[in-house]
Write a structure and sequence with these properties.
By secondary structure, the protein is mainly beta. Helix content is 12%, strand content 33%.
Length: 170
């Protein structure tokens, strides 16, 4: 996903890209369903280029509660400024030490920008739905399908130990 700034003819240019996950550096972090699509708007600001983009991807994840696979549609956005490399003048902050990224030559490679945007959007603890009940901690039954016969674990009853102390006192 490379943009040649010599090809930009207007102040604002719209471009669309699509790529296989492995082409932008994904090697098993997530299972993608099809191509990763990216639409960008490139703003030419003479010595820098602002790239505003939207990523569109579908990912298959495992639910952290019931362990079933589910699909998640992702459409994260990013907004990054790429700065042309120039000789640094005294007192000037180098591009690598700000929120701006340095460009090498006349090419803006947004592949890593897209990869990092997707990684930040992936849920840490994926859940198939808000109402997912998960698995029974005792027998492992899927509580979304049926209620098992197990008692609720003591973890859900923080004062269960008091019941035993009261029985001993009687």
């Amino acid at each position: 996903m490379k943009i040649d700034i010599k090809d930009l003819k207007e102040q604002v240019t719209n471009l669309d890209f699509s790529a296989k996950p492995e082409e932008i550096g994904f090697n098993g972090e997530a299972v993608f369903d099809g191509l990763i699509k990216v639409s960008v708007e490139v703003h030419d600001m003479s010595e820098s280029f602002r790239v505003i983009g939207r990523v569109s991807a579908r990912v298959t994840l495992d639910c952290g509660r019931c362990l079933k696979k589910f699909k998640l549609k992702m459409e994260p956005k990013f907004d990054i400024v790429h700065v042309k490399e120039s000789s640094e003048e005294e007192g000037e902050i180098p591009p690598g030490e700000t929120d701006e990224l340095a460009m090498e030559g006349d090419i803006i490679d947004i592949g890593e920008d897209v990869r990092q945007t997707i990684l930040l959007e992936l849920p840490i603890n994926p859940v198939c739905g808000k109402k997912c009940k998960g698995l029974c901690q005792t027998c492992g039954a899927d509580l979304n399908k049926k209620k098992c016969g197990c008692d609720e674990p003591a973890l859900n009853k923080p004062f269960a130990g008091i019941k035993n102390i009261l029985k001993k006192k009687k």
